User: Fold these one by one.
Assistant:
Number 1:
Amino acid sequence: MDEQEEIKITQTYTEVEKHRVFEKEFMPYIDSMYNFAFRLTNDEDDANDLVQDTYLKAFRFINSFAEGTNAKAWLFRILKNSFINDFRKKSKEPSKVDYQDVETTYNSEEDAETTQTVDLRADTVQDLIGDEIANALNALPVDFRTVIILCDVEGFTYEEMAKILDIPIGTVRSRLHRARMLLKEKLKSYAKSLGYDVNADSMAE
Amino acid sequence: MVSEVEKIQKKTSCEHQSDCMKLVQLIVDGQATDEQIAQFKQNMDKCLPCEKGYELEKCIKETMQLKLEKKCVPSSLIDCIKKKISAL
């Protein structure tokens, strides 16, 4: 959430109402928020700090939240912006960026006309365990990791993601597409290094 | 249900793969229209790369939902947030 938007007051809750709205509308999402923060930071302490910052900020700006609207997307937007604006700079572990990946993917992100395919079998992916999936996800640059988490783990729609990330829906689509291409490459590398047969007879039944 | 004979007759290369994979993304994300879903299903019955592409994308999405560890927020964090909110 931009500071400008955060201070756009649309409600005037009493103190009692503020606490009620906070408890009823925001607290149910704290597990999702914590998992999102952990996936962004890759560190439990950092995730704690990020979630705490987000919830305190949500309370501070609660008058810009209309009860009954999409609290989850509102909170995710605050968390994402807190991560970018305040947290990314001081993170203990700067994201493990493969700069070649970033260069390749960003250069073509908004022009996803050329679709490469990654020769990877669905049953190979099914054989991977959770840690291997997490490693592949964590190896992605944070902006790509973010769209996959929002879409696949948290189930946000493209429209919600566009609002959370403050980007057009078309960019959500193309970024997601690129993110998934990269993820498939990472999954394929992990599977290969673990001795899985990743692409033999991939077109055969 | 597609018979074995029909399976063998499926195309093994797709001339529209770029467009088909964009459609696959919309479908697995639940963002496609009924018309787009019907269009893709019709195509998938005849095209092996599209069928494989759909299976892979669907599998990866399900894997992300089911296999990524879901951490529980520490109760100490909840307590800390509530304490700070009460003090404001």
Number 2:
Amino acid sequence: MIKRSRLRPLRTLGHGFIKRIWRLGAGARLFWLTLISSGESFRRFHLTIREVYFTGVMSLIIIVVSAFFVGMVLALQGYNTLQRYGSSEAIGVLVALALVRELGPVVTALLFAGRAGTAITAEIGLMKATEQLSAMEMMAVSPISRVIAPRFWAGVIAMPVLNVLFCMVGILGGYLVAVPLIGVDAGAFWSQMQANVDWRLDILNGVIKSVVFGIACTIIALFEGYDAPPTAEGVSRATTRTVVTSSLVVLGLDFVLTSFMISL
Amino acid sequence: MERTTIDLWVGIFVALGVAALLGLAMKVGNLTTASIGETYTVSANFENIGGLKPRAPVKSAGVVVGRVADITFDPATFEAVVSLSVDKRYSFPKDTFANIYTAGLLGEQYIGLEAGGDEAALKNGDKISQTQDAVILEKMISQFLFSKASEETKDSAPSKASGSSESTKIDDDALGANPLDAL
């Protein structure tokens, strides 16, 4: 007979695994509940609009500023390499494709998780800790349809909008560096870009990515808040987990989505 | 915060988003140029299509008149069958010549249509019989080296191998397909 204490690492492993599976299932259940009880967030659309304000409009500054700098850096770095091969006019294509296909959706989602996802988690975690959610249930108001669903749809609406703004501002930043600063021909910059960026394969796929990331980031933030232990420590840990999980999920999903989109 | 203010800001936010999407579509993407309306399909057989891909442009006189719809392999003739969607507004004579060109040094490959003099026009489902294969850079270089080598040996051995005649044929092909595009 083996001593019980020898089995402890295995027990820890099993416990951690079961806990992860349980959380995944609970998250999926919350996602499903949100979907089927999201009628109210559209009937009383001002609830959703309010959340779009807090998740989308309030994230504008960080999104626009980082997009501008990402675009400028892309143009500088791209020019440095491209001019060795005598094709510095392709800088427009490089900046546009990099932004529209990958950097736009992914960086927007990462910033969104940090800016809006944490706010959602902390808000809902505190609402739970101060028993506001229980109070709602006592008044026969479903916290899922009154609190969770509007925030979910707000995130799903805000993310693609932020993504296209990120791409556009990034391209403008790249333009500012490439054309007035470096001296690439403006006509070549735009025409090469237009010739090589496809509406459906590049732009629409980027928007689809950002919609998926919006769903993932928002539902993770909502679940972490809803699941947080109602203590100060619990909420702070949940907020950290939101950022870590959202970032990892976004990067993983990005690989999966890209591999599907490339093969199509 | 007041509800009307929030509504206003969200309105501005969404309007900015739509404007950015329109900007991406019009200024960055090729939605305006890619809008080919009604098309008709013609096919062309090539012995070698090089790096031609579906959705590559079909140009005539440098103007995009259509896109490559589909590329298949014909196991009977061992040729590539390329179907082209050509804009209905443009009709081409039956003896139109289809070439595969390369844009720039290492650019994408596209199909160039050169109109012939036939009275009858190409219809949906027709086949372009006169085609010119893609120029394969390695093939050209090896043929060039081969012909150089045979030129050098010409004085010592006047009775050349049959390879030389083939090399001249390929050189003619290369000239026909505008070697400046490939080089």
